[in-house]
Structure formats: structure tokens, C-alpha cells
Amino acid sequence: MSGISEEQLWQLAVTTLADNWWHDHTVPSRTLYPYQWSWDTGFIAVGLAHVAPARAWHDLRTLFEAQWADGRVPHIVFDAAAMTDPKPGRERYFPGPAFWRSTDVPAAPQRPTSGLVQPPVHALAAWDIYRHSPDSESRERAAAELGWLYPRLVAQQRYLTTHRDIGGSGLACLVHPWESGQDNSPAWDAALAAVPADLTLLEKYQRRDLEVSHRSHRPTDADYARYILIAQRYRDHGYLDDGPGERYPFLVECPGFNSLIIAAELALAEIAPVVGADPQPHRERADRLTDVLVDRLFDPATGMFHARDVYIDQLSPVRYLGGLLPLLLPDLPTAQVKSLLVEAAAPAFGLNEHVSLPLPSYDRTAPDLDPERYWRGPIWINMNWLLWRGLRQHGQPTLATALRGAMIDVVRRSGCYEYFHTTTGAGIGTPEFSWTAALTLDLLAHPEG
User: Fold this and answer.
1) Helix pair angle (381-393, 434-444), 10° resolution
2) What is the DSSP code string of 280-337?
3) How far apart are CA 325 and CA 297, in angstroms?
4) CB 299 within 8 A of CB 315
5) Among residues 183, 209, 253, 372, which one is catalytic?
6) In this structure, which topology does domain 6-442 adopt according to CATH?
């Protein structure tokens, strides 16, 4: 695949997204992820904006039609057409609807969903679709879509900034590693160590991911047992958000997640005038949250942002790519911007004007780096795409161009894989992965210079 042209790469990405249309929405993958995932939907919409904007809006609508009454947007939305496995008596994915039991919760919709959330990239996606509208007619249609979506995006933000301010700092807390989108990142290791790894749960609940993936590429059984216990505890307490307690075995403030909340407020400030709303409250919240983010999660000793374990009120020492995502924020103080650029260029990540591979998800110099295991080292296009936006935001065109080229090149050589080997760039995980295809379209649609 290394010799394909950009035109052929464009067509490969378009075909991947077409093949992943399932029932009434785009799925991340027909094999490993056969339902609708929350932040995947946002990234997919960014790419569809260039080739099928009506589908992009449709995917966002399908997701937000499953929004809970408290404003949360669930990280998985299930649909009846995809729920039945060819083998009778089994669901296609674990944990499925029978585990989450969302339809028993008064605040939840009747359509089965999970009870967790994921990073709120949807406002960014909605604004991208609108501003890429090629003519006045399509922009008018896009404005109508924004009118429907805007109050739902506001409710999502309200949920994250109020219900999820569990630690009382002003930042949103993750109550499960899955909510970060970076499931088994080393950034959560210390906080997860306090959660029992009850392997008997894997006798009660069967992992389905290992049927279609290599075990060496996926989270370990010990991690998975912890994931089940944390989700089970939250579910059994009715998915209610309150002060720290037994319903949350895991409680972490993540700089990447909170940066995307702030970026969403800024996108809503752009959307607000289009729908006749006041942008100022969004800007004020973004300013306030940026101050708290710097105060709570930036460590001057490392020059990076880090995850904070709320229970012990300590920053994790782990350098992971989520700690660079505050570069998305235009009003990040100059001192932090300069520091993050230095850290991005350091050996841990290796960003420079001649970079040949996108940045790894975890410090490449760490002794426990695993170049193949999910978020413990491999390259992910979505995180690099967010960083690329941040570099452009802060006037770094040379670095942005280099990173864009590295992302396009690794997909051109290996295909639209879920993620890529840290040092070789070989494709890992599920092939024909939707957000890789979608974000490749966005990169191709933005030639630098």
C-alpha cells in the first residue's frame, strides 16, 4: 500500500466510511465495535463533512437522540439490528445492553445505551461541518442542524461541568478509564492499582474483543477485571453522580478530557450567534476552566499536564499524549504553550520538522512502553489530529505540516487501521477503522501552505 497516491488514499478512506455504515449510523468497525460510539461519531463527522455532510449531521443526531435527561451523552448507543450475534444467545459485544441495564434508569432513553461518557468532541465536529459548507444553501441547512443540536450540546457541557465536578475543583472527573477514550493508558495505572483485580468476573462475563483481536494488542485480563468492577459499581448505584464514595472506585481528572470540554465551549461560542444565542457565557466558562486546568494539572517540574488522582490528590508522573492536548486552547498561557512545545519535541514524543511517524500515545523512552498494546505506546491518529489542530492554533505551521505529513504517510503505508506500531508504523487493531479514515480525509482536505 506504500505506493498509493493521495487520490487513492482519499478513495480508500471514503470506501472505509461507506463500508462502516450500519443500519442507521456509522460504526467504528463492523467487527470489533459494531455499535455507535460517542467520540468516534464526532471524529467521523469531521471527515464526512468533506464528502457526505448529510450523513455527518445524521450520525450526530442519532447519537444525541440517545442523550440522557441529565445531559450525559452515553459512550455507546446500541441498536436492535446489530445486537444479535449469529450464534444464538450471545450479544455481539461485551459489555452490552444486558450489562448496562440503562433502560431501568429513569433518566435514560428507552434505547439501550451505556452509562458512561467520552470526551466531548461533538461541538468541534458540528462547527467544522457548518464552516465547511460549500454554498449558501448547504450553509442554511447546516444552520438548521446547529439549531437542533445546540441545546443538546449545551446540556452535555452542563452535565460534564456540574455533575462530573465530583472532586469540587471545577474540573470534570472520569469515573472509568473508558471515559478518557485512552482505556489502558499508563496514566491511570496508579489510580487503578487501588481497584481489586477480581479475575472471577471474567468467568461470569466473557470478553468478546479477544475473539477478533490479538491478546497482545488489547488490555490485560487484570485491567479488564478492574474495568468491569468499576462499571458494575457505578451501574449498581444508578449512575448517579455525587461526592466521592464507594460508587467510584476510580476518580481522575484528565487534562485531555478537560481540554476538550474547554474546546467545546469555544466551539459553542462560535455556534451561538448562528442559532441566535449569546456566545459570551461560553467564552467566560472557557476562560475560567483554562485557569483551573493550569492550576490543577500543570506540573512545572515536568513542563507537562498530568492526570490527577482525586482520592489522593496527586498528579500522576506519567507522560502521555493527553498531557499535550491543552495546546488546543487558544488562551492557554504563553508559558505553558512554550513548555508543551519543548516537551513535544523531547525524546518522549519526538516532534520536529522532520518527524517521520506521528507521536506515540505514551512516553517512548519509558521502560514499560509497549509498542503494540492499545494505549500503552501505539500511535493513534485521532490524538495526533487534535495535536495538529493545537499546533496550528499556536502558530506552529512547520511542525503542523510535518505532523500532518507523518499521519498521512503512516495511513498510506499501512491502511486505515485502528492504531499503529510505535516504531514501525505497522497497522494494529481492527482494519478499516472509521475515525482513521475520517480524519485522513480532513488532513487531505487541508493542504498546508
Assistant:
1) 30
2) HHHHHHHHHHHHHHHHHHEETTTTEE--EETTTTEE----BGGGGGGGG-TTS-HHHH
3) 12
4) yes
5) 183
6) Glycosyltransferase (1.50.10)
Q: Which three cell numbers stand for residue 227?
A: 474495568
Residue type at 124 in one-letter notation = L
The residues, any chain, with a CB within 8 Å of residue 50's CB and separated by 6 or more, are: 132, 441, 442, 445
Spacing of C-alpha 421 from chain mean position: 19
| CA-to-CA separations, 48 to 41, 114, 136, 255, in angstroms, rounded | 10, 25, 19, 28
Q: Determine the Cα–Cα distance for residues 372 and 428; give it in Å rounded to an integer.
A: 7
Tens of pLDDT, residues 327-359 = 999 999 999 999 999 999 999 999 999 999 999
C-beta separation of 173 from 224 below 8 A: no
Against a cut of 0.90, is the pTM above it? Answer: yes
Query: Rounded to 5 degrees, what angle do the CA atoms 81, 71, 159 make?
Result: 135
Task: Give 243-261 pLDDT, tens digit per residue.
Answer: 777 889 999 999 999 999 9
Peptide bond into 95 cis (omega under 30): yes
Q: What is the rounded CA–CA span in Å between residue 344 and residue 330? A: 17
- 184 is written with which cell numbers? 489502558
Could you tell me if 287 and 331 are in contact, meaning their C-beta atoms sit under 8 angstroms apart?
yes
CA distances from 392 to 48, 121, 404 (A): 22, 18, 11
Task: Choose the catalytic residue: 145, 179, 223, 418.
Answer: 418
What are the boundaries of each domain within the chain? Answer: 6-442
Q: Is 65 a catalytic residue?
A: no
115, 247 in Cβ contact below 8 A? no
Contact 427, 29 (CB under 8 A): no
Which residues lie closer than 8 Å to 81 by C-beta, 6 or more apart?
22, 23
Q: Which helix (H) or strand (E) holds 18?
A: helix 6-19
For the question of residue 6 being annotated catalytic, the response is no
Closest by CA position to 361, among listed 194, 231, 98, 185: 185
What is the C-alpha separation between 71 and 159, in angstroms, rounded? 5
3-state secondary structure of 443: helix
**Strand 252-253, strand 76-77: pairing:** unpaired
> Over the stretch 259-316, which tens digit does the pLDDT of each residue have?
999 999 999 999 999 999 999 999 999 999 999 999 999 999 999 999 999 999 999 9
d(C-alpha 165, C-alpha 163), whole Å = 6
